[in-house]
Amino acid sequence: MKQLHYRNCNLCEAMCGLEIEHQGDQIIAIRGDKADPFSEGHICPKAVALQDLHNDPDRLRHPVKRTADGWQPISWEQALDETAERLHAIQRQHGKDSVGVYFGNPTAHNHGALLMLAPFIKALRTRQRYSATSADQLPHQLATLQLFGHQALFPIPDIDRTDYFLVLGGNPMASNGSIMTVPNIRGRLKALQARKGRLVVVDPRRTETAKVADEHHFIRPGTDVYLLLALTQVLFEEKRVAPGRLADLVDDMALLEEMVTPWTPERVADTVGLSAGAIRQLAGDLAKASRAAVYSRVGVTTSAHGSLSAWLVYVLNILTGNLDREGGVMFTRPAFDIVAIAGLSGDTGGFNRYRSRVHGYPEFAGEFPVTTLADEMLTPGAGQVKAFVTHAGNPVLSCPDGNRLEKALGGLDFMVSIDLYINETTRHANIILPPTGQLEHAQFDPIFQAVAVRNVAKFSEPLFDKPEGSLHDWEIMLGLMSRLNRLNAKTRRQRLQAQMLDGFLSRMGDRGLVDLGLRLGPYSHAGKVFGRLKRDGLHTLPKVAWRLLRSRQKGMKLKTLLEAPHGIDLGALTPMLPERLFTAGNRIPLVPPLYREPLAALTLPEPVARDQLLMIGRRHIRSNNSWMHNSQRLVKGKGRCDVMLHPEDAARLGIEPGAAVTVRSATGSITLPALISEDIMPGVISVPHGWGHDREGVQLEVARSAAGQSVNDVIGNDRVESLTAMAQLNGIPVTVEAA
Ligand SMILES: Nc1nc2c(c(=O)[nH]1)N[C@H]1C(S)=C(S)[C@@H](COP(=O)(O)OP(=O)(O)OC[C@H]3O[C@@H](n4cnc5c(=O)[nH]c(N)nc54)[C@H](O)[C@@H]3O)O[C@H]1N2
Ligand SMILES: Nc1nc2c(c(=O)[nH]1)N[C@H]1C(S)=C(S)[C@@H](COP(=O)(O)OP(=O)(O)OC[C@H]3O[C@@H](n4cnc5c(=O)[nH]c(N)nc54)[C@H](O)[C@@H]3O)O[C@H]1N2
Ligand code: SF4
Ligand SMILES: [Mo]
Predict the structure, then answer these.
(1) What is the SS3 assignment for 554-607?
(2) What's the CA gap between 201 and 44, in Å, rounded?
(3) Does ligand 2 come within 6 angstroms of the Cβ of 692?
(4) C-alpha dihedral sign at 645, 651, 657, 661
């Protein structure tokens, strides 16, 4: 009998609702769920590939151990015991920080793993923590921490009501939005234009988003900071600073004006590649728009001065009165309020509380930047990383200088990967612990619901029963964690505590924890009590706990969501300031001290050397970072891992369309076909990341046949973002020649 199953797609941030038609364990069709109030039936081609993931013969279905005779299946008991014992033994011998851990992007899409993250990290007891954050959104988080007092309190473009949407370094038509969960971006942009709103894109490439925009400006890679400073300067010079009701909340206005005064459009024009007139026009249009949203993403945060730029984008929204205003950039009120929960537990984030061993890079949110990961493994001495844990990450392809990282992984005493595949990274592991597949677990999105353009909530049941003898991500983490805690417990009391935590978490499970989070949220009665907790302080907890218990039957809980399999719309975003702030005195310091010195020291960059081009990345709708290339339906057709360059550059370098070209830096080189196109700025090339699968031992048959090469073999760790030392992945100087 054919059946229909409804769930959210978890591949990117857009949270599209799916309708999956199946007969038993056979998937017949994957379509958009028209009854999903948020995505209204919209999907992209990747959703259909969920069935390829599910059926993929290369996907691991039981733990494996690397031996002299290749990978051998082992039992969960053995795999978890051995992993915990090895990690424990290495920490005993070399100290706690001898174990490193890396969390990849899909961790954020897996609620079970997310809810288990804090206790799992605690059990690992190491400061050698890393994640894709430092190859991605760290500057946004740093800016929200500085301005709003909380690293996860992101202002989200109110795209459905804005009249002017300025996008820098984001390509939502390909990425489907990021730190802006926005299913059906195309439809929403069309609606913006239909109500006479304008979409303006600033990008070194005429992207898919630029092509549907009302206005597109090429910008020289890595120079957004100068453009943003000049826009700010013009607002002050032309007396167009109008923060509206925010005026009462912000400090440092005079300091900001003073600091941006030198950055006139005329001074920065040649550097950024926009004329002074165009910059003034942009500033004027932004100021004039009745409701505007300025938004930046990966192209800005992963390039030079990403931290200053991310901060300035929020500043522009504040100066024009668009923060926390309908049609501007707004805060969400999610049903599972991760911002409030983290805030209450005191974990609003932190920066530079300690530094990394080899390079002295600052910690952010308890992590070091990935730009030092290989060096922490390769540099001998006390604190050297000797063992490594990865969860849903492929740093060999996603972090700078993949070859060096491979060398480092090869020299470890022990490595374990919680992952679905034997890929470029996990092939170095001693043990791989594969979780259930995407359709075999429930789906809930605490992070992406918290960054969505509307307040929405949805919980999806698993489509398929958990196969016998398999474990979910959270169960694997719990298994490792309780073993480690047992091994580390020195006293009877500690052993008892470990047992209690283990018991509590296994009894709660992912569903129990989601339920608890929803009950604590703003749509439950308890949530109101919870809000009071924040205001009145933790000492009122006993009283509050009592209220919570009494209110068990009221308001939002897991059951509410189980009864609404298409999801629930909780309404448009609403103004939340100043209550939502976590800063001292609930104020917004426009120029947080952290940015003052780097801003004062900022100079215009040296011109690019004559023989060099600046390399940027590129995302494609049919590709997803490094790990979806084993789906034939997604990779079929003309290869997509190529070097896009402008006809002028191609002519100068004697490069024909389709010819093999070598892209080279001090770090390494790759050779790929040339894609000659007017869509890219002269002097710039674009190469997508996440490719380079044809490496020995990689067990991804389809991906290996459409291998491409890894752009991160060319990008080194020599260029790090100056404030945070996070990876610089865009605007990399390279040479290009016919191969
Ligand atoms: N199909 C698909 N969707 C995805 C992903 C994927 O791999 N494939 N990945 C997901 C992830 S992990 C993320 S973080 C998001 C990212 O979401 P986006 O940030 O929207 O994704 P990108 O396409 O990388 O967009 C970055 C843009 O910045 C431009 N750029 C490069 N350098 C500069 C610069 O110096 N200045 C300016 N102004 N622009 C610059 C690039 O040309 C590019 O168009 O996408 C998510 N969604
Ligand atoms: N040059 C360049 N480099 C980049 C970028 C760029 O734009 N340019 N983008 C950066 C960005 S924004 C990001 S987010 C990073 C991404 O970097 P990573 O997170 O390191 O890499 P992914 O390709 O997302 O790898 C995901 C891994 O998780 C596994 N996996 C998938 N689903 C699950 C699951 O449910 N559970 C478990 N346990 N494993 C799972 C996959 O098999 C794969 O090994 O790359 C960064 N690197
Ligand atoms: S846009 Fe993202 S969430 Fe929507 S179907 Fe595609 S991959 Fe899935
Ligand atoms: Mo990302």
Answers:
(1) CCCCHHHHHCCCCCEEEEECCCCCCCCCCCHHHCEECCCHHHHHHHHHCCCCCC
(2) 22
(3) no
(4) negative
- Two structure tokens written together for 202: 């600033």
Domain that holds residue 618: 613-738
For 72, the enclosing helix (H) or strand (E) is: strand 70-73
Cβ(688) – ligand 2 distance below 6 Å: no
Which ligand is in closest contact with the Cα of 689?
Answer: 2
- In the reported structure, the alpha carbon of residue 19 is separated from the centroid of ligand 3 by a whole-number distance in angstroms of 13
Residue in the block written with tokens 């109101």: 528
Q: Is residue 138 lining ligand 3, measured as CB closer than 6 Å?
A: no
Summarised one tens digit per residue, pLDDT across range 634-691 is 999 999 999 999 999 999 999 999 999 999 999 999 999 999 999 999 999 999 999 9
Q: Which of 330, 345, 377 is the last residue of a domain?
A: 330
- The pLDDT assigned to 476 comes to 98
pLDDT in tens, 5-24: 999 999 999 999 999 999 99
Low-confidence ranges of the chain (pLDDT < 50): none
Cβ of 47 closer than 6 Å to ligand 3, yes or no, is: yes
623 Cα to the center of ligand 1, angstroms = 12
Cβ(301) to ligand 2 under 6 A? no
Mutate to test the pocket of ligand 3, among 12, 30, 445, 623 (most ligand atoms within 8 A of CB): 12
CATH number at residue 272: 3.40.228.10
Q: What is the CATH number of the domain that holds 625?
A: 2.40.40.20
Q: Which tens digit of pLDDT belongs to each residue from 512-541?
A: 999 989 988 999 876 566 666 666 665 565
Cβ contacts of 318 within 8 Å, gap of 6 or more? 243, 246, 250, 588, 590
Total number of domains constituting the chain: 2
Give me the residues near ligand 4 (ion), CB cutoff below 5 Å.
136
CA of 402 to the centre of ligand 2 (A): 13
Q: How far apart are CA 596 and CA 680, in angstroms?
A: 34
